[in-house]
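REVIEWER CHECKLIST
Item 1: Sequence provided? yes
Item 2: Single chain? yes
Item 3: Sequence as submitted:
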Amino acid sequence: MKKSEKIFVIGKKPTKLYIFASAMVPLFFSLLLGGFAFDYLKSVVYGFVFIAVAYLLLLFLYIPVIVKFRQYWDIREGYLEYYGITDYFQQLKYILSIFNSNYDMFSFKIKLTEINSIRLYWTSTWTIASTPDHFIYFGITLKDGSIINYRSLIGTFTKEYIEAVNYLKEKCNIQIDDKYNLLGALADPCIDLAKYIDKIEKQEDKWRTKNGKS
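Item 4: Structure as written out by the authors:
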C-alpha cells in the first residue's frame, strides 16, 4: 500500500547520515579515553577491548540526545502526526527503525476530523545564563473532550509552521486559539519572539500584582 504524501513537515527526522555522524561523537571520546587505557593497561588487546566497550556504553547513553535534537511533526493526508519519543527503549527502537524505513510506527497519529480546536501557548524555562527559553506548544482539544499537548515549534521552521497552522485552520476548518497572536509575531521579521513573550509575561505579572492575584 502506497503511503500518502506528507503535506507539511515541521522539524527534522533522524536520517541514516545524521545517525552515523552522531555516532562519531561517542567514538571520539572513547578513543580519547582509550589513549589513557593503553598507558594504564600496558596491553594493546585490553586497550582495544576497553575502547570497544567504552564506545558501546557512550553510544547507548547518547541515543536520547540523537532523538531529542531530531524531533518533528507533520501533516499527512487526513492525519496530524507527532514524533516525540521519551522512553529510552522506544528511542533505541526508533533509531534502528530508520534503517529499514519503518519509523512511521512510532508516530502519534491524530485524525484531523477528530480535532475540535488547537490552542497556541508557550512554556518558559530558565537557562544557566538566567535567561528564559520559550517553547511554543499545541494544546489540541479533540471532539470527545480529551486534550493532547506537545511542543509544536521546533527549531527555526517558522515559515513552514505558519503555513501548517493556516492549513489546519483554512483547509481543515479547525479552530485556532491564538490569544497572544504568536503567529503574527512569528510572521513579522522585525519582532524577536523571545522579547515579545517576555513583554507579555511582564505585563501579566503587573496585572496580577495590581489585582492581588498570584
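Item 5: Key structural point noted by reviewer: The beta strands are 6-11, 72-76, 79-83, 108-111, 115-126, 132-142, 147-151, 175-177.
Item 6: Recommendation: ____
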